[in-house]
Structures are given as C-alpha cells and as structure tokens.
Amino acid sequence: xxxxxxxxxxxxDVQNGVLGKENQTYNAKEVLNNLEHLIKKARTANVPVIYxxxxxEKHLExxxxxxxxxxxxxxxxxxxxxxxxxxxxxxxxxxLEDLRKLGxxxxxxxxxxxxxxxxxxxxxAFSLGFDVTVxxxxxxxxxxxxxxxxxxxxxxNRIFKxxxxxxxxxxxxxxx
Length: 176
Prior knowledge:
alpha/beta; 6-stranded parallel β-sheet; 33% helix
C-alpha cells in the first residue's frame, strides 16, 4: 500500500548547464551527494519527488545536454517534471495545481541557484501557504562579481531560516 504524503521533495534546476563546469558551483559534489541521498529517502517513504527544469533559448534549450537533469539525481520515468521559464518554479507552471492534486502542504526544497531560482521558489511557496523546509546543504550557486558563492549560500540560509522556511541539513530530514 502506498502511503499518501502531504510532503513533496522539490528539486530545482539541477541541470548540467546550471551546475556549470567542475569547481564552478560551490560544493557541487557535496550538494549532489546530499540531494541524491535525500531523493532515495523520499522514494523509500513514497514521498513524491518533483523535478523542475529551467528552459532558456541559448544556454538551457530543451532536449540539449545542458538542459538535462544531472545524471547523479536523474528522475525516474514516473516522477513529475515541471518546465519553467522564470526563476520561481510556480510562475506560469502547473506546479501549484500538481501539488494541490497530490494534497501536498509541505515542501522540502533543494537545487540551484541559491540567489535566483531557489530564493524565488522558496519565497513564492511561503507566500502560497506551504510549510517549507530548505535543504541547508542541498542548494548552491557560483561566485558573483560581489560575493563568493559560499557567502551567497550563507546569506540566503540566514534569510530563509525562520522567516520563509525551516532550515535542515539533508541528513536531518526524515520523510517517515
């Protein structure tokens, strides 16, 4: 018997072209490893894993290598994929409708890039009334011209915590 869950795991934009070249994305191996283990835990607990893919004309054109979800955490054929063109995973997508159909009220969110799509999705989910948990060690970005990626992640974790979401390390998240 499949357990009906009110929680879903949302994996945002962990695509080859967003992840970037080796060593560009801060803690890329750790983030991928943490998300991989979290996905396995969610699947074992029959918690829906929903993947979001950003679409853009040049760098993330659909059906190209850059657009594909990284092989380390690739979805199964039965897992939902949401296509988006904006930073928020909710804007002009079916995500809200799909979550409502599943009866989801709690979201666990991880992925890329912290200051863009993770931030926009977390805030949008919060404003829609979802109980949000951000995977503290399951999102990342690259250095910017003003801040290191490490500082961007630390800053956003501080902003998320308590204001928009609960913050937990991947190892602390239990879907049971």
